[in-house]
Every structure is written in C-alpha cells, then in structure tokens.
Design brief:
The protein is built from 8 helices and 7 strands, in the order βαβαβββββαααααα. By secondary structure, the chain is α+β, with helices and mostly antiparallel strands. A hairpin with a 5-residue loop joins strand 4 and strand 5. Helix 6 runs parallel beside helix 7.
C-alpha cells in the first residue's frame, strides 16, 4: 500500500484509524460483554477527526487503534501497520497486520487506511463557532433584541456575531501552534521534511546526541526558538481575541 506523503506525513504519528476493539468478534469464542467507560471530562464528540482535544483523545485512545504508536522514547512501534518503509521522498509503503476486523466483522483493508487519511484532509474543523453561536442565542440580550422586534440580520451581525467570533478566533493560534509542534516532532523523528530542508525539529535532533558532552547549545537554541515561536503565536492570538471581544470594550 502506497500513500502520497502530502496526505499523511504530517499526520502519520497521530493517525487514528476508525477501528473499534470488540472482544466478541465472530469466531473468537468469547461472549460479547458490555463495556462502560466513565470520564469526568465533558466530551465534544467521539469522532476521532472532529475535535483534537485532550479530553477527547484520552478516551478515544481506548476505542480506536493507530496505524503506528510511539513509546516513551518517541520511537515508532507497530500498530495496525506491522512494518513500513520509504519508497521515495513522497511515498511510504505500509504492511498492514493480518486478520484485523471492524466491530461489524468486515476486514480492514488498504482502502480503509487511504479513506481515513483523506478524511483528515477534507474534514471540517471542530464546530466551536457553531457551538458558541448556539450558546449565545440563549443569552438574555438576544431575547431582549427579539422582544424589541429587531430585524434578524441586525441581531446576527450587530449582536450575535461580535460575541461569537472571539472564542472562534481563539482556535486559530491553537491549531497553528499545534501544527508547528507536530511538524517539529515529525522532523525530530526523521519523518518530516527532507533532511536537506531547514526545520527546527531537525536542528534539535542534530545536536541531541551531544547534550551530555558540553555541546548542549546545538539543540538548546533551536529548542528555545521553537518554544518562542509557539508561545508568540498563542500570545498574538490571545491579543487578537481580546481586541475583538466586545466584552472588553463596554459602550
């Protein structure tokens, strides 16, 4: 199975394949039992591609299996794929584990993996803007505007949209910072951009073996630059959110 790297290179280590564990598969000889999982978090969704939040991924890790895993040393370990190799600079070849089935008994094939990766590319982002807008519609100021018989367009653009856009804007720097950290992680592991391309993750990896020899600066300064880049992205995003939030600018 060959997959174009533009679809998977930046999501490889974090790929979640929609495979549900079930102890009572046909022919397994085990009785089907009900499994209940309790969590103190307020979950947004059980779709592994719909929201990349810690409270979601911590639970979904018990439901969906990954193509590859990472151990405590961030080394890749087999998951649904038992082996993999680079065919070219833009292609990887994976060998899937045999006799893997979904909860309904259908077999896992290479087409399922390709579909999952393309779904990540095409899938919409988390519905934070919609959820915020729905919560704002129940606020008292929206009810007051309706009682005043204001036009719907004015309620939306003058009252609802300004109070909903700030929380949605907050997601942008989070996603950008996450993308930067993910790219650096993959480059550190040798799964990111080619070795002849500049990357902070590759720069950290180049000096990793010299950390205990007194030449720690080879990895220290790229690491500080990476930290500063992610922190600055989040600080700018927070400043933009505050400037757009009408609650910070009372009339």
């Amino acid at each position: 199975m060959q997959i174009q790297s533009r679809f998977c290179s930046h999501r490889l280590a974090a790929l979640l394949i929609s495979l549900t564990f079930w102890s009572g598969l046909p022919g397994s000889g085990h009785a089907q039992e009900e499994l209940r999982i309790a969590t103190s978090y307020k979950l947004m969704t059980l779709d592994p591609h719909y929201a990349n939040l810690n409270e979601n991924t911590s639970l979904l890790s018990h439901i969906y299996e990954r193509l590859v895993y990472q151990d405590d040393r961030l080394d890749l370990k087999p998951g649904l794929a038992v082996s993999w190799r680079a065919v070219s600079d833009r292609q990887w070849e994976f060998k899937l584990r045999e006799n893997v089935r979904f909860h309904d008994g259908s077999p896992l094939t290479a087409d399922d993996v390709v579909y999952t990766i393309e779904r990540i590319r095409d899938f919409l982002k988390s519905p934070i803007a919609r959820s915020v807008a729905l919560s704002e519609t129940n606020k008292s100021y929206i009810d007051a505007a309706r009682l005043m018989r204001l036009p719907t367009a004015r309620i939306i653009f003058r009252h609802l949209l300004p109070n909903s856009i700030a929380p949605a804007i907050t997601l942008i720097p989070i996603e950008v910072g996450h993308a930067v950290a993910l790219e650096a992680t993959l480059s550190f592991l040798g799964l990111g951009v080619p070795i002849d391309k500049p990357s902070l993750g590759s720069a950290v990896a180049n000096g990793f073996q010299y950390l205990l020899t007194g030449q720690y600066w080879i990895s220290l300064f790229p690491g500080l630059a990476l930290f500063g880049l992610i922190a600055s992205i989040n600080l700018v995003g927070e400043d933009v959110r505050r400037s757009l939030d009408p609650r910070n600018h009372p009339a």
